[in-house]
Amino acid sequence: MPLPSSRSQHPPARGAFTSGPFAAMGTDTVTVIRNEGTDDQESFAVEGHIQSKAGFFDVDTPIFEGDVILVPDPRRSEGTERRFAAEVKLNNFGPAEMRHVKVVWGASPAPRVAPVRRLTFESLHPAVQRAAGDLFADGHYETAVSEAFKSVEVRVRKAVAVDKSGAALMGDAFRSDGSVLDVASHEGRSGEDEREGFLHIFRGAMIGIRNPGAHELFKPGDPQQALEYLGFASLLHRRVDVAEARKP
Predict the structure, then answer these.
(1) Angle of helix 166-173 relative to helix 188-205, nearest 10 degrees?
(2) pLDDT digit string (tens) for 7-28?
Protein backbone atom coordinates (compact mmCIF):
# COMPACT_ATOMS: atom_id res chain seq x y z
CA MET A 1 0.00 0.00 0.00
CA PRO A 2 1.28 3.53 -0.71
CA LEU A 3 2.72 5.37 2.23
CA PRO A 4 0.68 8.34 3.49
CA SER A 5 1.86 11.69 2.18
CA SER A 6 1.79 14.51 4.72
CA ARG A 7 3.93 16.89 6.67
CA SER A 8 5.87 14.83 9.14
CA GLN A 9 7.68 15.46 12.39
CA HIS A 10 10.29 12.99 11.16
CA PRO A 11 10.70 13.65 7.41
CA PRO A 12 13.17 11.76 5.23
CA ALA A 13 16.75 12.96 5.38
CA ARG A 14 17.39 16.12 3.37
CA GLY A 15 20.17 16.49 0.87
CA ALA A 16 22.23 19.55 0.05
CA PHE A 17 19.53 21.06 -2.15
CA THR A 18 16.48 20.75 0.13
CA SER A 19 18.63 21.78 3.10
CA GLY A 20 19.95 24.77 1.19
CA PRO A 21 18.18 27.22 -1.09
CA PHE A 22 14.65 25.89 -0.66
CA ALA A 23 14.82 25.18 3.07
CA ALA A 24 13.67 28.72 3.91
CA MET A 25 10.70 28.43 1.52
CA GLY A 26 9.65 25.12 3.02
CA THR A 27 9.61 21.49 2.00
CA ASP A 28 7.02 18.76 2.25
CA THR A 29 7.15 15.04 2.69
CA VAL A 30 5.58 13.47 -0.38
CA THR A 31 5.05 9.90 -1.54
CA VAL A 32 6.36 8.70 -4.88
CA ILE A 33 4.50 5.74 -6.41
CA ARG A 34 6.09 3.81 -9.25
CA ASN A 35 4.33 1.24 -11.49
CA GLU A 36 1.01 2.03 -9.85
CA GLY A 37 -1.60 -0.70 -10.07
CA THR A 38 0.84 -3.43 -11.10
CA ASP A 39 2.53 -6.29 -9.27
CA ASP A 40 5.73 -4.21 -9.35
CA GLN A 41 4.23 -1.20 -7.55
CA GLU A 42 6.54 0.44 -5.04
CA SER A 43 6.36 3.63 -3.03
CA PHE A 44 8.67 5.72 -0.88
CA ALA A 45 8.67 9.05 0.93
CA VAL A 46 10.94 11.95 0.00
CA GLU A 47 11.37 15.61 0.87
CA GLY A 48 10.70 18.19 -1.83
CA HIS A 49 9.72 21.78 -2.48
CA ILE A 50 6.28 21.61 -4.10
CA GLN A 51 4.92 24.34 -6.33
CA SER A 52 1.70 24.47 -8.36
CA LYS A 53 3.34 23.54 -11.67
CA ALA A 54 6.49 21.73 -10.57
CA GLY A 55 8.33 20.11 -7.71
CA PHE A 56 12.03 20.31 -6.80
CA PHE A 57 13.98 17.50 -5.15
CA ASP A 58 17.52 16.55 -4.22
CA VAL A 59 19.60 15.50 -7.19
CA ASP A 60 19.78 11.84 -6.13
CA THR A 61 15.99 11.46 -5.68
CA PRO A 62 14.84 8.51 -7.86
CA ILE A 63 11.85 10.17 -9.53
CA PHE A 64 11.16 9.42 -13.18
CA GLU A 65 8.61 10.31 -15.82
CA GLY A 66 5.38 8.40 -15.27
CA ASP A 67 5.63 8.30 -11.47
CA VAL A 68 2.68 9.41 -9.35
CA ILE A 69 3.40 11.80 -6.50
CA LEU A 70 1.04 12.29 -3.56
CA VAL A 71 1.49 15.79 -2.17
CA PRO A 72 -0.04 17.29 0.98
CA ASP A 73 -3.40 19.02 0.40
CA PRO A 74 -5.25 20.37 3.45
CA ARG A 75 -8.40 20.82 1.34
CA ARG A 76 -8.98 17.11 0.96
CA SER A 77 -10.26 14.67 3.55
CA GLU A 78 -7.49 12.18 2.75
CA GLY A 79 -4.97 15.02 3.00
CA THR A 80 -3.23 14.43 -0.33
CA GLU A 81 -3.46 15.37 -3.99
CA ARG A 82 -2.31 13.13 -6.83
CA ARG A 83 0.14 14.61 -9.27
CA PHE A 84 1.73 13.04 -12.32
CA ALA A 85 5.42 13.40 -13.26
CA ALA A 86 5.01 14.39 -16.91
CA GLU A 87 8.54 15.71 -17.33
CA VAL A 88 11.65 15.17 -15.20
CA LYS A 89 14.74 17.32 -15.59
CA LEU A 90 18.04 16.44 -13.93
CA ASN A 91 20.12 19.53 -13.15
CA ASN A 92 23.40 17.94 -12.11
CA PHE A 93 25.82 20.83 -12.45
CA GLY A 94 27.22 23.70 -10.42
CA PRO A 95 27.59 23.78 -6.65
CA ALA A 96 26.24 20.79 -4.73
CA GLU A 97 23.54 22.87 -3.03
CA MET A 98 22.17 23.94 -6.44
CA ARG A 99 21.97 20.49 -8.02
CA HIS A 100 18.44 19.16 -8.12
CA VAL A 101 15.69 17.26 -9.92
CA LYS A 102 12.83 19.31 -11.33
CA VAL A 103 9.51 17.51 -11.89
CA VAL A 104 6.91 19.20 -14.09
CA TRP A 105 3.35 18.18 -13.30
CA GLY A 106 1.07 17.05 -16.10
CA ALA A 107 -2.23 15.35 -16.74
CA SER A 108 -2.24 11.76 -15.61
CA PRO A 109 -3.11 9.37 -18.45
CA ALA A 110 -6.10 7.11 -18.03
CA PRO A 111 -5.04 3.84 -16.41
CA ARG A 112 -4.70 0.96 -18.83
CA VAL A 113 -6.94 -1.91 -17.77
CA ALA A 114 -6.73 -5.18 -19.66
CA PRO A 115 -10.18 -6.43 -20.73
CA VAL A 116 -9.17 -9.94 -19.63
CA ARG A 117 -6.68 -10.15 -16.78
CA ARG A 118 -6.14 -13.88 -16.71
CA LEU A 119 -7.04 -17.08 -18.47
CA THR A 120 -9.56 -19.15 -16.53
CA PHE A 121 -11.07 -22.54 -17.21
CA GLU A 122 -14.55 -21.00 -17.15
CA SER A 123 -13.65 -18.75 -20.10
CA LEU A 124 -12.74 -21.66 -22.40
CA HIS A 125 -14.94 -22.96 -25.21
CA PRO A 126 -17.87 -25.06 -23.93
CA ALA A 127 -16.62 -28.08 -25.88
CA VAL A 128 -13.32 -27.96 -23.97
CA GLN A 129 -15.15 -27.59 -20.68
CA ARG A 130 -17.29 -30.64 -21.43
CA ALA A 131 -14.35 -32.77 -22.54
CA ALA A 132 -11.84 -31.76 -19.88
CA GLY A 133 -13.76 -30.14 -17.01
CA ASP A 134 -13.98 -33.04 -14.56
CA LEU A 135 -10.48 -34.26 -15.36
CA PHE A 136 -8.97 -30.82 -14.85
CA ALA A 137 -10.87 -30.30 -11.60
CA ASP A 138 -9.62 -33.65 -10.27
CA GLY A 139 -6.00 -32.83 -11.12
CA HIS A 140 -5.68 -35.14 -14.12
CA TYR A 141 -4.11 -32.40 -16.20
CA GLU A 142 -2.39 -34.50 -18.84
CA THR A 143 -5.54 -36.50 -19.56
CA ALA A 144 -7.59 -33.30 -19.61
CA VAL A 145 -5.37 -31.86 -22.35
CA SER A 146 -5.52 -35.11 -24.32
CA GLU A 147 -9.32 -35.21 -24.17
CA ALA A 148 -9.59 -31.55 -25.17
CA PHE A 149 -7.63 -32.07 -28.39
CA LYS A 150 -9.45 -35.34 -29.03
CA SER A 151 -12.69 -33.33 -28.89
CA VAL A 152 -11.34 -31.04 -31.62
CA GLU A 153 -10.50 -34.02 -33.80
CA VAL A 154 -13.89 -35.68 -33.26
CA ARG A 155 -15.76 -32.47 -34.00
CA VAL A 156 -13.89 -31.85 -37.25
CA ARG A 157 -14.40 -35.47 -38.35
CA LYS A 158 -18.15 -35.17 -37.82
CA ALA A 159 -18.26 -31.84 -39.65
CA VAL A 160 -16.62 -33.16 -42.82
CA ALA A 161 -17.82 -36.79 -42.65
CA VAL A 162 -14.38 -38.13 -43.55
CA ASP A 163 -13.05 -41.34 -42.02
CA LYS A 164 -9.59 -40.01 -41.32
CA SER A 165 -7.76 -38.79 -38.24
CA GLY A 166 -4.90 -36.53 -37.22
CA ALA A 167 -3.09 -34.36 -39.71
CA ALA A 168 -4.63 -36.13 -42.72
CA LEU A 169 -8.11 -35.24 -41.47
CA MET A 170 -7.15 -31.60 -40.95
CA GLY A 171 -5.63 -31.43 -44.42
CA ASP A 172 -8.94 -32.53 -45.95
CA ALA A 173 -11.04 -30.28 -43.72
CA PHE A 174 -9.13 -27.01 -43.86
CA ARG A 175 -8.21 -26.55 -47.49
CA SER A 176 -6.60 -23.30 -48.54
CA ASP A 177 -9.55 -22.54 -50.84
CA GLY A 178 -12.05 -22.86 -47.98
CA SER A 179 -14.15 -25.32 -49.93
CA VAL A 180 -14.83 -27.65 -46.97
CA LEU A 181 -14.49 -25.82 -43.64
CA ASP A 182 -13.79 -22.14 -44.13
CA VAL A 183 -12.19 -20.64 -40.99
CA ALA A 184 -11.50 -17.24 -42.56
CA SER A 185 -13.06 -14.22 -40.90
CA HIS A 186 -11.86 -11.85 -43.66
CA GLU A 187 -12.21 -11.66 -47.41
CA GLY A 188 -9.58 -11.37 -50.11
CA ARG A 189 -5.89 -11.95 -49.48
CA SER A 190 -6.31 -11.72 -45.70
CA GLY A 191 -8.83 -14.54 -45.82
CA GLU A 192 -6.52 -16.65 -47.97
CA ASP A 193 -3.72 -16.14 -45.45
CA GLU A 194 -6.03 -17.13 -42.58
CA ARG A 195 -7.04 -20.35 -44.32
CA GLU A 196 -3.45 -21.25 -45.09
CA GLY A 197 -2.27 -20.40 -41.59
CA PHE A 198 -4.99 -22.28 -39.74
CA LEU A 199 -4.53 -25.31 -41.98
CA HIS A 200 -1.00 -25.56 -40.60
CA ILE A 201 -2.14 -24.73 -37.06
CA PHE A 202 -4.75 -27.52 -37.02
CA ARG A 203 -2.34 -30.00 -38.60
CA GLY A 204 0.40 -28.96 -36.19
CA ALA A 205 -1.88 -29.44 -33.20
CA MET A 206 -2.57 -33.01 -34.28
CA ILE A 207 1.11 -33.77 -34.99
CA GLY A 208 2.65 -31.98 -32.04
CA ILE A 209 0.03 -32.36 -29.32
CA ARG A 210 -2.64 -34.94 -30.13
CA ASN A 211 -0.35 -37.69 -31.44
CA PRO A 212 2.50 -37.66 -28.85
CA GLY A 213 0.02 -37.58 -25.98
CA ALA A 214 -0.21 -34.83 -23.39
CA HIS A 215 1.84 -36.76 -20.84
CA GLU A 216 4.92 -36.19 -23.00
CA LEU A 217 4.42 -32.42 -23.38
CA PHE A 218 4.91 -30.97 -19.92
CA LYS A 219 5.77 -31.74 -16.35
CA PRO A 220 3.13 -33.77 -14.49
CA GLY A 221 0.93 -31.84 -12.11
CA ASP A 222 1.37 -28.43 -13.76
CA PRO A 223 -2.13 -26.86 -13.88
CA GLN A 224 -0.97 -23.56 -15.38
CA GLN A 225 0.73 -25.17 -18.35
CA ALA A 226 -2.22 -27.53 -18.82
CA LEU A 227 -4.57 -24.54 -18.83
CA GLU A 228 -2.52 -22.89 -21.56
CA TYR A 229 -2.82 -26.02 -23.72
CA LEU A 230 -6.55 -26.08 -23.04
CA GLY A 231 -6.67 -22.45 -24.17
CA PHE A 232 -5.11 -23.53 -27.47
CA ALA A 233 -7.74 -26.25 -27.90
CA SER A 234 -10.40 -23.64 -27.11
CA LEU A 235 -9.07 -21.41 -29.89
CA LEU A 236 -9.32 -24.27 -32.38
CA HIS A 237 -12.93 -24.94 -31.37
CA ARG A 238 -13.79 -21.28 -31.84
CA ARG A 239 -12.36 -21.39 -35.36
CA VAL A 240 -14.55 -24.39 -36.10
CA ASP A 241 -17.44 -22.22 -34.86
CA VAL A 242 -16.49 -19.68 -37.53
CA ALA A 243 -16.39 -22.38 -40.21
CA GLU A 244 -19.78 -23.79 -39.22
CA ALA A 245 -21.32 -20.31 -39.22
CA ARG A 246 -20.08 -19.80 -42.80
CA LYS A 247 -21.71 -22.95 -44.07
CA PRO A 248 -24.65 -22.35 -46.44
Answers:
(1) 170
(2) 334 446 667 787 776 667 788 8
